Structures
1.
Amino acid sequence: MTPHRRVQLSRDVVLTMLTVGALAETAWTVYLGWRLPRHYVTNHWDLAWVGIDSVQVLMLLLAAWAAWRRRAVLILFVSISGTLLLVDAWFDVTTARYGDFDQAALSLLIEVPAALVLFWIAHRTVKRLTGTWLADTDLAVLPVRRIPITPPRANGPSEPT
């Protein structure tokens, strides 16, 4: 089997898995919408909120590290950070009591634009990586966390290893 054929099979498997996953998630969402109670008291509410905020901080710090080191893994970290901000804004608004809605709206006005900026950073980084230097065979063997965002200089690597 040629390497190209193996890649094509893997792509087909991934597309099938993603489609089946989306259909299963749709069925689960419909079921939850039908069966979940309208009112529910939960334990560990504080742990859930502190947990999501802690992961946001971690992803933002990892994004800062990746940007500082000029690594392509920045795309992953800013994408996760932006997604977490949108999820946080969603839950802030949908779980706010009447008296807390002003705070939730303020959170929405901060977190959604911040998420859009993070997605813009990911987009710009992907655009930078689409240059021809990325096809360099030396870079193809590097793990993603080691691929530099900027092209290497003609007289050597972009930074010492």
2.
Amino acid sequence: MPRQGIAMGLEFIEGNEAIVRGAIRAGCGFFAGYPITPASTILEYMLHLLPAEGGVAMQAEDEIASMGLCIGASMAGRKAMTATSGPGISLYSENIGLAIMGETPLVIVNVQRQGPATGSATKGAEGDIQFTRWVTSGGLPMIALSPATVGEAYELTFRAFNLSEQFRVPVIVLSNKEISLTQESVDLDAIELPPLVERRRPADGEKYQPHHFETPEQVPVLSDFGGEHVTQYTTSTHDKAGYLTADPGLIQEMIDHYTAKIEAATDDIALFRHDPQEDAETLVVSYGVTSRSAAMAVREARDRGKRVSSLTLQTLYPVPERAIKSAIDGVARIVVPEMNMGQYRLEIERLAPDGAEVIGVNKMNTTLISPDEIIAEGGLL
């Protein structure tokens, strides 16, 4: 296994290894996970690579423990990540809520597979999209990123760590079996990454409250457990000092804060690629591995003389509404191909202007959606 500080040049690697190396490049210092197809090789790569970089990687007894260990490690000062799939993300749900309530930086990789339940454990799908947004009780905003290639898996994992530290939130990377277990030629050193974001800690001697903010969108500084400050941490409703409260006004103030710090930054969090065509009648909106078929479908449709634009989303949540509305402007038809039964199409329908037709191209039989299917079912013939 290569050390991460060594420039490797062009390599032939799978998406799960790229995720691990993106995490280490971002400064990940702790990983806990439990084996589950198709995420298991993330655990294996972490066990091999992370200790050599001064970090700790461990196999927990189950998914619930994996999340708990990562929350503890993060609050003690380590950048932390876990990875799972299918039923595992369901088991993560309660502790994801705890991470939201405790404002805990954390990266969660969900390598999606065909569901529901055990489903087809070795087959791909993208059926966890809406579940990602509403993964825990309370309905508070989430950040979720969706790579389409091995290179993007590396880049978006790095960015996920930046976002988790910047906003003190859990961030989900929505990979899937096709990306994570497919090998591609990629030069990770050639991928342009943003500056590394480190968590903001209180200055020496500074008076500290774990959830202090002056305005709702302000992100509190974070003092490591075991350091200078005594810190309260609870899953129950609490005030800025972390003490339990039943005061409706204080509870609403905290809820408004958890919401505002993400929603106010929606445009900054938004990652997307817009490929417009002048006077386009149709827009194809895609994400994840299906966006690769969508790109081919758009090229073929244009070769046939069709006026088609495309919008590829890398940020799914918070919904990049400004980018979507801008791309939709002026088109009569919006095609949304998904390896599920139409989950993100609901967001597009919500934002589409009156009179615009929204067409879903949906398949959930464990096989990829082909460019020909997008052309035929999307009315691009």
